[in-house]
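Quick log. Single chain, no ligands specified.
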Amino acid sequence: MMSEAVTDIRPEHKVVLIKIPRSAPVGADADALLEATSKWWVVAESRRNKGPAGPDFALAVNKGRVVAAYRIAGWRPAPTGHRWGFTGALSDELTALYGGVDVTRYFPPGAANPLRYVNCDTPKASAQRATAEFVELQRTELAEVVRRLDREPLTHLMLGHRELFHSNLLAWFFRSLPESADHVFGSLTSVTTAPSGNTRRVLREKNSLDLWFRWPQRRALVIENKVFSLPDEKQLEGYATKAASRGEAPLFWLLSLSDPSWTDNRKILAGHEWRWLSYRDLAERIADDQHQTGIASRHGMADPVAIARVEEQHLVCLGDGLVTPQVAHIGAPIRKHQLRGARVLFRTRVPEAALAVHVPDCDGRSLQERLNRKLRHGVLL
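-> predicted structure:
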């Protein structure tokens, strides 16, 4: 049990915080917890040396809190790729000191890197190396992810019709792997005593909605999937109204790459609540199930976290219009791959949405309608 006085990492302790999977065995199996914490990670050379940037301890973080601390003895390379794992042993002293400490402030929302270094640099050295080190780590990690995706046949199948591909794949997942699908999607709905039928099934494009999941004893779950199209609240209102008119009461979820900027990730539209599920959250749910059962990976599903990582990089590199040399360097692995076409499409969508707020309708057509027409006819913006 931690001391009540400890609420943060003390300045004398050079540590790396490692966010382990939510399904990692916390408390029950010490060896398995060390295994999940110690490997495999993207770690710069300066972090692996016993210098000012190298950590002395690794703290395992689960659900935002420290669950164990290890003294780092050294680093070893992964059998393949460019990742590293540390060797070491449990530190009873630091585990007792920091066990239960909330460290969520070190992991800002949307941050992809599961490692955070604390007290591992002098202020002067940190200022000189921070930008270059961050860019190189991001580029190295992204290059590895693109290589992994390139080896997956599913990656090449999805390049043609992305939203149809993702929706069809999730429909197959729900039908063919019910145990895994219940683990991934079950918490998005709720148990009901109302008649829900005895048949488990998934509907595609029912009432123009992408996915409609039905279970016995559960409320139906509706998912509207937006990969590179931006969420349209008027469209969502119409979908919910149409679904409710048939006497059903499903739960509505928007699955998308772009954040709709809803308070608490939910919004009432036409009297019906929509909630937002990001592709990264979905990927982590699938990865969490694979960690426990391995069912999805045995059936040939592409690495979902890898896909979400590359899709997120589209937003980082181009979605916000950040075209600095450093950011361009991070995105270089994507530009050399077929995924660059998807990135260009998304780049047009983000400023389009921003402009639509300020540009009035013309000849009865909105800015979005006019831009869509130009895109369909190959006119460059």
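The CA atoms of residues 356 and 367 lie 6 Å apart.
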